[in-house]
């Protein structure tokens, strides 16, 4: 990645984040690998943004085909109708940025055989051979797939983001899940999951879910923004961030794990997290929130502690003419009071009757 500011450098605007002190080392993104599960309205735009940001490696999971009904969304084009979503996405993404390694997986991760393939893919899908992916992004539209991702990430102790858009297309959310530290998707499951309801029975005949490219784009933007903050260690990563388009409301919250979660791997990760020494946890948080300094300090600006900058109240005024910058001078010098100078009394030996007499003569 070059930081050279020229029109032919596709990374110059991204590298400017480093020069402005937002990101310490933007080049680190080339060493990051992200798995995007579900290449639909949110997932396709998410993959697009990460590719333009120069991510090192993308793993795409989906088994659907591109349809003309998808054209109300972003990313896909009519000429791609009939192609598998991962194939169509890979072609477009490779054209946008050939530096990114694109790996496609065209299968349903919720089946028994394919779940094992999914586990293997994210366990060894890192940029460095044999390493796991750095982050998993769930962009699926059903609870069955979300539960499969949740199970896999709990088992492998991988951090992941869950995302979704409502059926009426006017609200959405993202949720950052760190196994053992925050609530997993099974800790507080939706009713359809808790009651083991078949999602297919909930669909009404002749009625499909609504979809707005605006809501999809906003949720994808929130997802990628927090992904970048997590991967490049800047800003604050939201545990849960919602969006209500009707009133432009963005709720935030944190969800604690359920000690009696049905997922045994979640309970195991909770026990491991509780056993972790507090000093290790604090050191990790400190390293993630470490302030990023500007590369250049043209004006010599320094930060001074308030107690160091404030002069002592009981100190005597003294001449500072010798400390002034060249070209400046004081209008007058404060008088120097000797320590052994006699103190003058502020009260005279005059009685009250004498004062009254003086006032009556005025």
Question: Topology, pairings included?
Answer:
Layout (H helix, E strand, L loop, with lengths): L11 H8 L13 E5 L3 H12 L4 E5 L23 H12 L4 E5 L6 H12 L11 E4 L4 H14 L3 E6 L5 E7 L13 H4 L18 H20 L7 E5 L7 E2 L10 H12 L2 H11 L17 H4 L42 H10 L1
Parallel strand pairs: 1-2, 1-4, 2-3, 4-5
Antiparallel strand pairs: 5-6, 6-7, 7-8
Quick recap:
One of its GO terms (molecular function) is ATP binding. One of its GO terms (cellular component) is cytosol. Helices cover 33% and strands 11% of the residues.
Number of continuous helical runs: 11
Tell me what the CATH architecture of one domain is.
3-Layer(aba) Sandwich
Structural class: alpha/beta
* CATH H-tier superfamily of one domain: NAD(P)-binding Rossmann-like Domain
CATH class of one domain: Alpha Beta
> What is the CA-based Rg, rounded?
32 Å
Strand elements, count: 8
What gross morphology would you assign?
elongated
Helix content: 25-40%
Description:
This is Ubiquitin-like modifier-activating enzyme 5. GO terms for molecular function: ATP binding; metal ion binding; UFM1 activating enzyme activity. E1-like enzyme which activates UFM1. Keywords: ATP-binding, Metal-binding, Nucleotide-binding, Ubl conjugation pathway, Zinc. Belongs to the ubiquitin-activating E1 family. UBA5 subfamily. The chain is an alpha/beta fold and about 350 residues long. It has a domain of about 240 residues: NAD(P)-binding Rossmann-like Domain (Rossmann fold), CATH 3.40.50.720. The protein is built from 11 helices and 8 strands. It has an 8-stranded mixed β-sheet with strand order 3-2-1-4-5-6-7-8, with helices on both faces. Helix 2 crosses helix 7. About 30% of the residues are buried.
């Amino acid at each position: 990645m070059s930081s050279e500011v020229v029109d032919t450098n596709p990374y110059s605007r991204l590298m400017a984040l480093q020069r402005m002190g937002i990101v310490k080392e933007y080049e680190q993104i080339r060493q990051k690998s992200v798995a995007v599960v579900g290449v639909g309205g949110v997932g396709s735009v998410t993959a697009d943004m990460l590719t333009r940001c120069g991510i090192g490696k993308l793993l795409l999971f989906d088994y659907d085909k591109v349809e003309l009904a998808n054209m109300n969304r972003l990313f896909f084009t009519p000429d791609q109708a009939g192609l598998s979503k991962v194939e169509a996405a890979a072609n477009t993404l490779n054209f946008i940025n050939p530096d990114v390694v694109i790996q496609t997986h065209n299968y349903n991760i919720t089946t028994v055989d394919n779940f094992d393939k999914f586990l293997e893919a994210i366990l060894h899908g890192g940029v460095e051979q044999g390493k796991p992916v750095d982050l998993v992004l769930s962009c699926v539209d059903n609870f069955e797939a979300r539960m499969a991702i949740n199970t896999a990430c709990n088992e492998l102790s991988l951090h992941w983001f869950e995302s979704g858009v409502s059926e009426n297309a006017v609200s959405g959310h993202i949720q950052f899940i760190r196994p053992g530290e925050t609530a997993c998707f099974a800790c507080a499951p939706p009713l359809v999951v808790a009651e083991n309801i078949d999602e297919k029975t909930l669909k009404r005949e002749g009625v499909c879910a609504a979809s707005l490219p605006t809501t999809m784009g906003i949720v994808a933007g929130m997802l990628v923004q927090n992904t970048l903050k997590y991967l490049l260690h800047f800003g604050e990563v939201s545990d849960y961030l919602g969006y209500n388009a009707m009133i432009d409301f963005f709720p935030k919250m944190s969800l604690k794990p359920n000690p009696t979660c049905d997922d045994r791997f979640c309970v195991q990760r909770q026990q491991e997290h509780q056993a972790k020494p507090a000093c290790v946890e604090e050191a990790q948080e400190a390293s993630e929130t470490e302030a990023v300094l500007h590369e250049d300090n043209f004006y010599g600006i320094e930060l001074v502690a308030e107690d160091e900058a404030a002069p002592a109240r009981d100190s005597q005024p003294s001449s500072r003419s010798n400390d002034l910058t060249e070209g400046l001078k004081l209008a007058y010098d404060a008088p120097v009071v000797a320590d052994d100078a006699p103190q003058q009394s502020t009260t005279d030996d005059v009685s009250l009757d004498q004062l009254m007499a003086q006032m009556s003569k005025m």
